[in-house]
Write a structure and sequence with these properties.
This protein is of the alpha+beta class. Helix content is about 25%, strand content about 20%. The longest helix is centred in the first third of the chain and has 15 residues. The mean pLDDT is about 85.
Length: about 160
């Protein structure tokens, strides 16, 4: 083992650092981080979703909170803003966090807060797909195939179902 080029210490050219524990860069690093996070969330009362493993739900009867994890991004929302701030403080006491404020865009989904709750849209994502396909000037159509042109007869099965 030797010091990397450009970072050689002229007073100790043969010395290297001995790492007792290294996590970043290893294949199991994301799993170890997720395990630590999920253990902490379960300890403070969150329940893991059985359907979506990255979703955690905390409900105390009157309030409900959702925490969604994507790689190293966390989206936290709930029905009580005071309790939400407490949860953020609790998380920041255990993990290094940076609160980015209200969500506007997450995983390709635009989020708009309304008086009734949140409205989720994928308008920008759809426009990006249309731009890449060169279809931004196409005319929109409700249904790609007009139902009146189809000859569907429910009494007669298709000869070749594939």
């Amino acid at each position: 083992m030797k010091q990397p080029p450009g970072f050689v210490d002229p007073t100790f050219p043969s010395h290297v650092c001995r790492l007792y524990k290294s996590l970043y860069g290893l294949k199991q690093a994301p799993r170890a981080w997720y395990t630590r996070l999920s253990d902490f969330l379960l300890c403070i009362g969150f329940l893991a979703s059985k359907v979506y493993t990255s979703l955690f739900i905390l409900s105390d009867g009157t309030n409900i909170f959702y925490l969604l994890v994507y790689v190293d991004d966390i989206l936290l929302t709930g029905s009580n803003s005071v309790m939400l701030r407490r949860l953020v403080q609790l998380l920041s006491s255990e993990f290094k966090l940076r609160d980015l404020g209200d969500v506007h865009y997450f995983l390709g989904i635009e989020v708009q807060s309304t008086g009734m709750g949140m409205m989720l849209r994928q308008h920008k994502y759809i426009l990006d797909i249309l731009t890449r396909a060169g279809m931004t000037s196409c005319k929109p159509v409700d249904t790609p195939v007009s139902p009146s042109t189809l000859d569907i007869q429910p009494d007669h099965p298709f000869s070749d179902p594939t």
